[in-house]
Amino acid sequence: MVEVGRAWLAPGCVALLSLLTGCASVTQGTEQSVKVETITADGRALSDAECVLVNEKGRAVLRSGKAGPVRRAGGDMTIRCELDGQVPALGQAVSRGNAGLAGNILLGGAIGAAVDVGTGAAYTYPTWMQLVFGQERRFDRQSNRGDGPTAGELLRVVPASEARAAQVDAPVAAPASPVLAASAPTAAPVAAALRRGDVLEYRLTDGLTGNSSRIYYRVDRAERNEVVFNQGARVETSSGRLISLSSPTAGLFDASSPPEGWVPPQGGPGTRWQESYVAQTGPKWRHELQATITGRDVQLLDGQPLDVLRLRYEGWVYTPSGLSMGSLTGVPFQADVSYAPALQRPVKFDATMRQAYGPALRESLELVRIQR
User: Fold this and answer.
1) Which domain holds residue 39?
2) Are residues 326 and 196 both part of a single domain?
3) 25 or 4: which leads in pLDDT
4) How many helices (H) and strands (E) does the chain have?
5) 103 touches 2 (CB < 8 A)
6) Same structural domain, 194 and 156
7) pLDDT at 266 over 90
8) According to the model, what pLDDT value does residue 82 have?
9) Are residues 147 and 218 both part of a single domain?
10) How many folded domains does the chain comprise?
11) Is residue 231 part of a domain?
């Protein structure tokens, strides 16, 4: 049915390309109206909080209790609402394809669909969300079953120490002078060793679609030789070597993590070594990689400087091909990693892997903050 529609619609699209910016694009516009409400944990409504909404297309500032426009985008949107005397209310609004995208696909409007995906017009966020002071919640309009606010899923309790912290994803402004910089309040050092209760917030981005999501690792136990995250879903040694991973959530990062750790003991710039291993999780691909510590650098993490080692992993990953699971095909793989020795873990991971069939996989995983 779709192919037939495409056959008779395509000539019309070609004829109208000189008159229209897109071919039969079924669009809902690049902006949508969003209403954000703020309440206390006991359900008491508190309005007029300042809410900052950020996605890959831009930043909007709204007052809670009122609706306002935001740019549509394929990636999720972060929300931070602040009000004097309250711990911030945080939210994540999930982006979903809307009726315009479905209409383009059904009508065969490939050009229109591509345009709407690029501009963000193909996506919609929940239109009414109720954030709770002192909590971070995830909002997905697919879970809405009525005309009220979209039901939110509790992700974590926000510690009181976050009150009046920097805006979510806002650019870090340079201090006006060294004197002002020295007198400004500072957060807990990001380079301190991980301890129980710390929450590591990563952003995972698909390089092909631009879609991004947040991944959280909560430290449930930090002992002398072992660090346990997310109730045992991820377990590492204190030196960062992966012991077990029962719930992989970080894409290529999880599927390609070296079992013996990212950096050899006493490794410094110029160190080279060979990695040959089968990943412990996911499809369990075999890796044959050359690893190099290419240098040292300083990376900002939530506005604070962090010393890192720059790593390069490149070589081949062997994946099943054809109908026979026993037949393996080698495909090129490359990963650039920023590794923080103080945290014993990568703070940024950019990887590209070719596929035997289909487009290359491109993913980025970046640590954006540590909640202590």
Assistant:
1) 2-162
2) yes
3) 25
4) 5, 22
5) no
6) no
7) no
8) 92
9) no
10) 2
11) yes
Q: What is the chain's mean pLDDT, rounded?
A: 78
Residues 219 and 270 in one domain: yes
Cβ(169)–Cβ(78) below 8 Å: yes
Res 275 pLDDT > 50: yes
Q: Are 303 and 166 in contact (CB under 8 A)?
A: yes
Q: Tell me: do 364 and 217 sit in the same domain.
A: yes
Name every residue whose Cβ is closer than 8 Å to that of residue 129 and which is 6 or more positions away in sequence: 34, 35, 36, 37, 79, 91, 93, 139, 149, 150, 152
Question: What is the residue whose two structure tokens read 């959280």?
Answer: 216
One domain, residues 278 and 314 = yes
Q: What is the average per-residue pLDDT within 190-203?
A: 86
Per-residue pLDDT at 93 exceeds 80: yes
Give CA torsion, residues 248, 140, 75, 124, to 10 deg. Answer: 150
pTM (two decimals) = 0.51
Whether residues 156 and 241 share a domain: the answer is no
At 143-194, the pLDDT tens digits run 666 667 887 888 888 887 766 544 444 443 333 333 323 333 334 567 778 8
- The residues with which 312 forms a beta bridge, in sequence order, are 292, 336
173 lies in a domain?
Answer: no
Pairing of strands 345-353, 328-340: antiparallel
What are the tokens at 365?
């995983």
Count Cβ atoms below 10 Å from residue 23 Cβ, excluding itself. 23
Whose tokens are 């009046």? That residue is 164
CATH number at residue 365: 2.40.360
